[in-house]
Specification:
The complex is a heterodimer of chains A (329) and B (354).
Chain A lengths: L1 H27 L5 H11 L6 H11 L5 H12 L6 E2 L4 E2 H36 L4 H15 L2 H16 L18 H10 L1 H27 L2 H8 L4 H7 L1 H23 L1 H6 L5 H10 L3 H29 L1 H6 L2
Antiparallel strand pairs in A: 1-2
Chain B lengths: L24 E12 L2 E13 L4 E5 L6 H9 L6 E10 L9 E2 L8 H6 L4 E4 L13 H12 L4 H14 L5 H4 L9 H13 L5 E5 L7 H18 L2 E6 L2 H7 L2 E6 L2 E7 H6 L4 H8 L51 E4 L2 E3 L9
Parallel strand pairs in B: 3-8, 3-9, 6-7, 7-8
Antiparallel strand pairs in B: 1-2, 1-4, 4-5, 9-10, 10-12, 11-12
Classes of the chains: A mainly alpha (329), B alpha/beta (354).
Chain lengths: 329, 354
């Protein structure tokens, strides 16, 4: 078992190294570099940059060197925790991302928990009472949920809360806390703002998960081991919770892997619409400005989160499924 | 509500019935239907049979004849959309003096019915692989039955599980009890299944194709085990199978089913040596024999089982029957004709009609 975990860990590290290469290549792909974008920006506002100035800027950021040298320089600093300086913000990348990373994780995790908390009970109910009136109702709602784009829902909710309640629901903080240092009051303010974006973010996933859970459980309910349990004289509710639900939940352990990056990147549009201080909008801006250290760090973070998510889901699967635990030796 | 069902056995107490007592389990006119969008499937359509204490009743028939559904109906665990539409299932209670109870009168999900499942009547399944959950150890799944029906402590239940595993011939039961079903071979799994069924000392064991998924040598071992346990504990067994060889070996009494009906009933020797119903005769002809001349074709039953929605009128077997009487068998359903108290056949070739 330890050998298995060690092998997974080594693979995870190798994958992260590969991701760092691809992250670097991807942010180099658009034509031009930060200095070109910077010059274009300045000339749009009337001022200009001389050739010498541009050259010294390139030398400053190391943009005049071959790509592999740039990558090695970047990596050697990333490995010691220095993600470089954002060219656009003129501040260290770590500082620019700062709280946004934690806010993103908090938002994503709340959305994830909400997704599971709503979807699993409804999915179980829909399967056990297949073709009941409530099953049809949940099915209709979840298809609507699947079909409606999240950002549209966000816009609609914002519109109605503004028109009906005169409330501006954007952001994760009230304006007085926006720049304030962390305090209990600020955390409480966050807690009050969190539900709406979390619900909007969770909606599509919830709808999808209801369908998956229902289908999984319907399969499991027909298996002979369910009859075995009933034949023992177990009460029906206990039969369902102990056996088929347990089996139907198994696939969810493996969905942890892709849920993390999906939640982080999937929230970009919603974050823009609701003006949430998360990583998503920052990534968009950095890509437009070709702010390569910032964009690179965020892309790298997304990749690393995927790998860590996969690793965690491997461990969880091993924990919940004895077949995996015993067959890997 | 009659206290002792004797619809088909008007004089069985005086006759040469296997035991002079009333049957332990008596199924009367059981009807289990599946209402589907395409129509109603009459999986079990008016089946009656008796199980006597300490004996083995073999229920034989082709797949889809309603054998397994009959077994599940007895336990009240038919899956939706299946529903028991009629009949009576009388279970003699533990003390001889108390009246028999009709299981169909008990609510399916009630505590009384649950106390009978597993405790009084236990089920052993085909597919020992799929009949266990892979997420719990076999010990957990055996102990669960014990803990459900008794006040035993966890430790006592575990000790009992180990004892049961030893009894059914699982080697190293102390170690095996903590293993998962997928770590066992098919034969061992079927033994564990048996241990689980016997956990609460049931009076009736229903074995639904217990050997179908096993290879021939393992089959013989499992059948021997079943016989041994039956003798040791005085169990009454309902053995459901499509294998006439298994029936000949194991059963005392036989019910032959075709399309949800019992077409012939009788003691095993008479069924084999003097089959009455054309279907029983055809079944017996289709058993491969070691005495047969080499390179002769194995006899098969003409035609195939009708589609469940296209059930033939009259006697359901008439389209495949070599002796079908035109204008009678395809129009009217043959009544059950009792040749003797313990011998019955549903066919126009016998009784008044012939």
């Amino acid at each position: 078992m330890l050998a298995y975990i060690a092998r997974r860990a080594v693979l995870a590290i190798l994958t992260m190294a590969a991701i760092s290469v691809f992250a670097f290549i991807i942010i180099q792909l658009p034509p031009g570099d930060f200095v070109d974008a910077y010059i274009a920006n300045l000339s749009a506002s009337g001022s200009s940059v001389s050739m010498e100035e541009a050259k010294s800027l390139r030398a400053l950021y190391g943009l005049d060197q071959p790509i592999y040298v740039q990558y090695m320089k970047w990596m050697s600093r990333v490995l010691v925790g220095d993600f470089g300086e954002s060219m656009e913000w003129h501040r260290p990348v770590a500082e620019v991302i700062g709280d946004r990373l934690w806010l993103t994780i908090v938002l994503s995790l709340s959305a994830l928990l909400l997704t599971w908390g709503i979807a699993l009970p409804i999915g179980i109910y829909s399967a056990v009472r297949q073709y009941s009136a409530l099953d049809y109702l949940f099915t209709s709602i979840s298809f609507i949920g699947l079909a409606v784009p999240n950002f549209l829902l966000a816009l609609v909710i914002m519109y109605f809360s503004f028109v009906l309640f005169g409330a501006n629901v954007g952001g994760l903080f009230s304006s007085e806390f926006d720049l304030a240092p962390w305090s209990v009051a600020k955390v409480w303010d966050l807690v009050k703002h969190l539900p709406l974006p979390a619900v909007i973010l969770a909606l599509a996933g919830t709808a999808q998960l209801i369908r998956i859970m229902r289908a999984n459980l319907l399969d499991e309910l027909r298996k002979p081991y369910v009859v075995t349990a009933r034949a023992k004289g177990m009460p029906e509710a206990r039969v369902i919770w102990k056996y088929p639900v347990r089996a139907a939940l198994n696939p969810f352990a493996s969905t942890i892997a892709y849920l993390f990056p999906y939640l982080v990147s999937g929230s970009i549009i919603i974050s823009l619409v609701l003006s949430l201080p998360t990583v998503g909008p920052l990534l968009l801006k950095a890509l437009i400005a070709q702010d390569m250290f910032l964009a690179g760090t965020i892309v790298l973070l997304l990749g690393v989160m995927t790998v860590i998510g996969t690793f965690i889901s491997d461990l969880v699967l091993m924990w919940v499924d004895p077949r995996i635990r015993f067959q890997m030796d | 509500m009659p206290q002792t069902p004797m619809v088909d056995h008007p004089d069985h107490e005086a006759g040469r019935s296997p035991s002079a007592t009333s049957p332990l389990l008596s199924v009367r006119g059981l009807k289990t239907y599946f209402k589907l969008d395409e129509g109603i499937v009459r999986a079990v359509d008016g089946v009656s049979f008796d199980l006597f204490a300490g004996r083995t009743l073999g229920i034989v028939g082709e797949s889809g004849c309603g054998k397994s559904i009959s077994a599940r109906s007895i336990l009240g665990i038919v899956d939706r959309p299946g529903k028991i539409e009629g009949g009576e299932i009388w279970l003699q209670q533990e003390s001889e003096d108390s009246p028999a109870i009709d299981l169909l009168q008990l609510p399916h999900e009630g505590a009384e019915m649950r106390a009978i499942r597993g405790k009084e009547i236990a089920l052993v399944f085909q597919e020992p692989m799929a009949s266990f959950s892979h997420y719990y150890t076999i010990g957990n799944q055996i102990m669960e039955a014990i803990l459900l029906h008794s006040t035993a402590s966890d430790a006592a239940a575990r000790a009992r599980a180990i004892e049961l595993l030893g009894m059914v011939g699982v080697p190293n039961p102390e170690r095996r009890v903590d293993e998962y079903p997928f770590q066992l071979s098919g034969g061992l799994r079927q033994r564990v299944m048996m241990a689980m069924a016997l956990a609460c000392d049931p009076r009736i064991l229903i074995a639904d194709e217990p050997t179908t998924a096993l290879d021939v040598t393992t089959q013989a071992q499992v059948l021997n085990l079943l016989q041994r346990i039956q003798k040791e504990r005085g169990l009454s067994v309902i053995l459901i199978t499509h294998d006439m060889g298994v029936v000949a070996e194991m059963a005392d009494d036989v019910v032959v089913m075709y399309l949800g009906r019992a077409v012939e009933k009788g003691p095993v020797d008479e069924i084999f040596h003097d089959p009455k119903h054309p279907y029983t005769q055809a079944l017996l002809r289709s058993i491969p024999s070691i005495m047969a001349k080499p390179r002769t074709k194995l006899a098969t039953i003409e035609g195939s089982i009708p589609h469940p929605f296209a059930r033939p009128s009259g006697c359901p077997f008439h389209p495949r029957c070599p002796d079908a009487i035109k204008g009678l068998c395809d129009v009217t359903e043959p009544p059950t004709h009792a040749l003797r108290p313990d011998r019955a056949v549903s066919c126009f070739l016998y009784g008044d009609a012939s």
